[in-house]
Fold this sequence. Notes:
The chain is globular. The chain is built from seven helices and no strands. Helix 4 (51-64) runs antiparallel to helix 5. By secondary structure, the protein is mainly alpha-helical. Among the domains are: 1-42, no CATH class; 46-99.
Amino acid sequence: MSTTDVIDTLVGIAPGSPLDELRARRPESRTHAQGSYDALFAPADVSHASIPERAAIATFVASLHRQESAVAHYRARLEGEGDERIAATSSSQHPPRSFPPSAPTGTSPPTTPPRASRARASRSTTSPPATCSATDSPPPSNTHIY
């Protein structure tokens, strides 16, 4: 018999399902995931960030990642906290800003070095790329590695 954690709730894993049985093989993962959630949303000290503030941040971050089930979960938690001022900032009347789809995993967008670096690069002579080994000292602080 497994116990339900926040991941089961957010993903919609039904007790006894094949995915539940798979997750039950690693009970420490459930314990630690739920422990992290509890540390964020049921902390002993809320002097740095209130529970409604934490729920608002979680709602915002989930919306940035387009995780609708997480947005709904954290928005419900936020509304349940009773802080109308914060809940209003995250209401469904104000959907998150739409961002273009991200690049596929494992790829990086092309980068262009800053203008000054391009100028230095065009004046420099061609030399083989530097190699490093574990015994080499770090490069000088004025060296830019791209």
